[in-house]
Design goal:
By secondary structure, the chain is mainly alpha-helical. It contains 5 helices and no strands.
Length: 97
């Protein structure tokens, strides 16, 4: 792929990540958007898009964001976007709280 094509895809992935974060968690700071724009690896951006879409809450997403480029552990209840709702209704294990 040509350099300008790669950069265009990176911009698209960055914007997608920002959009998913805003949909899931509300406004994000300009400082955090700058951190997103520092990411130059498409695989990392795509992993973070999946994480943003599935993280149970902002703190879970931040852990994944800060985990580094080789991380890919989107498993368990931390990546159940309904976890917090389920915890409020019932215990996370399905038992009444």
């Amino acid at each position: 792929m040509f350099s300008f094509e790669t950069e265009a895809l990176l911009v698209d992935d960055r914007e997608d990540l920002i959009a998913v974060l805003q949909l899931r968690f509300g406004n994000i700071t300009g400082e955090f958007i700058e951190k997103i724009y520092e990411i130059g690896d498409m695989n990392t951006l795509q992993r973070l898009i999946l994480s943003a879409a599935n993280a149970a809450n902002w703190n879970v997403f931040l852990e994944e964001f800060n985990a580094g480029r080789d991380s890919f552990r989107l498993v368990g209840e931390n990546f159940n976007p309904l976890r917090n709702l389920l915890e409020e209704r019932d215990g996370i294990d399905g038992k009444e709280a």
